[in-house]
Design goal:
By secondary structure, the protein is α+β, with helices and mostly antiparallel strands. It has helices at 3-23, 31-35, 45-63, 96-114, 130-152, 217-225, 237-246, 283-292, 300-308, and strands at residues 175-178, 181-185, 201-205, 208-211, 254-257, 260-265, 268-271, 309-310, 315-316, 362-369, 389-396, 412-415, 424-425, 429-431. The longest helix is centred in the N-terminal third of the chain and has 23 residues, at 130-152.
Length: 432
């Protein structure tokens, strides 16, 4: 697309994501709820709202447009690395009305400046509109974080549960074979890809079998009923430590009542649907289930090969089904507040026939988060590089809460292996 078309796309994406942010904050909650901290794991929602505006000001007004700072005195308040989440309620944060006015002012100036900004191919910050894509994705990522905060909120529901018909699953084999051989992992030419997705490089893998669909609530319940939480042999040393310290005996937000398993979903209590992918399980739980099932979690490379590689064409795709995004082929973008039943979206399967690799639930992998060979930090180390190492595990594929702008097959997420508030599940692999 030419520069004018790209700017029109950017304006639409900016407008759409801001509508989503407001729908999760000031449109549905009062000031007390916006400023409250529901868990030390999460920020007050008003912090997230002002933070996305401050981030936008830093990158799209000051860096891209060369504008003077609007509110330089608040930069430190909304620096995610300067203040851990648990301490943010004690900061002199902008009040909800002031935060909304601030983000609105920033957005108005960004849209006004967009016409005069030039996308210079030799400038990695503006080439292909990269910095605008970075800001759009950043806000959508915070929107997903806000959804996790909503899930942790006590009390009555604040979010409308969309009356969208459930996707219709179709039968599928339990697993598929991914043949041995090399494939291209990562990307070097996607203009909105983050630094940790780059550069493209060749990885050669032995053959393996991968589950066709994510592990379901019903399958996970079988693990529980078999004493999965009671037998240390299924758990790694670190997993046993988490298990005994947490006292967990079921996925997050599950409870047993009258012999029936229930879950709390955005303030609604309902029976656990056996056919949906399990979510709100930490890495240790996923790892233990895989051991119990006689399998293992996939490496990040195994996940990406199954998702992107087209063996007939000998190339990697942007999405499992092809190069262009199709909203009918994956459960993304908060269309529903839950995963689709396992086996849904058969037309969105990868070239190997693996389903639901994008959307529904983030999928834990066995891999530690690290840079690819030739990795270069850009435009700042705090996005990726400071998290590299054995402390964080990689998740792939996005969830029902993930926006399509951050759902390409190369996108990498990461978190601590103890985290359960995120919309994460998993699938398994086994060696040939």
């Amino acid at each position: 697309m030419d520069e004018d078309e790209l700017k029109e796309l950017i304006a639409r994406e900016l407008t759409a994501v801001r509508g989503r942010s407001l729908a999760l904050t000031t449109d549905v909650l009062d000031d007390g709820e916006l400023t409250a901290q529901v868990s030390p794991l999460m920020s007050p929602l008003v912090w997230d709202l002002a933070h996305v505006g401050n981030y936008e000001e830093l990158w799209l007004l000051r860096a891209a447009a060369g504008a003077e700072p609007l509110r330089p005195e608040i930069d430190g308040l909304y620096d995610a690395f300067e203040h851990p989440r648990a301490t943010r309620p004690s900061l002199p944060l902008l009040a909800p009305r002031e935060a909304r006015a601030y983000v609105g002012s920033v957005r108005s100036r960004v849209l006004d400046s967009l016409s005069s900004v030039r996308f210079v191919p030799e400038d990695p910050l503006t080439a292909g509109g990269f910095v605008y894509g970075m800001v759009v994705q950043h806000e959508h990522q915070h929107d997903e974080t806000m959804l996790a905060t909503h899930q942790l909120r006590p009390g009555a529901p604040a979010l409308l549960d969309p009356d969208v018909p459930a996707d219709r699953p179709e039968p599928a084999p339990a697993e598929v074979l991914v043949a041995a051989g090399p494939f291209t992992m990562g990307t070097s030419d996607d203009p909105w890809a983050y630094d940790n997705e780059r550069p493209a490089h060749t990885v050669d893998l032995p053959a393996y079998f991968m589950d066709t669909v994510p592990v379901t609530n019903g399958a996970y319940l079988a693990f529980m009923e078999a004493g999965g939480y009671d037998h240390d042999r299924w758990w790694s040393a670190a997993g046993r430590q988490w298990l005994h310290s947490s006292g967990s005996r079921a996925p997050g937000f599950w409870s047993s009542e009258g012999g029936q398993w229930l879950r709390r979903r955005f303030g609604r209590v309902e029976p656990v649907p056996p056919d949906e992918p399990v979510q709100h399980v930490c890495w240790y739980e996923a790892d233990a289930y895989a051991r119990w099932a006689g399998k293992r979690l996939p490496t990040e490379a195994e996940w990406e090969k199954a998702a992107r590689w087209d063996p007939a064409a000998q190339r990697s795709r942007r999405y499992p089904w092809g190069e262009a995004y199709d909203p009918g082929l994956a459960n993304l973008g908060q269309r529903r507040l839950r995963p689709s039943p396992a086996g849904s979206h058969p037309a969105g399967a990868s070239a190997y026939g693996v389903r639901q690799l994008v959307g529904d639930v983030w999928e834990w992998t066995s891999s530690d988060f690290d840079g690819y060979p030739g990795f270069t930090s850009f435009p700042y180390k705090e996005y990726s590089e400071v998290f590299f190492g054995p402390g964080h595990k990689v998740l792939r594929g996005g969830s029902w809460a993930t926006d399509p702008s951050a759902s390409r097959g190369t996108f990498r997420n990461w978190d601590l292996p103890i985290r359960r508030q995120i919309f994460a599940g998993f699938r398994c692999v086994r060696d040939v």
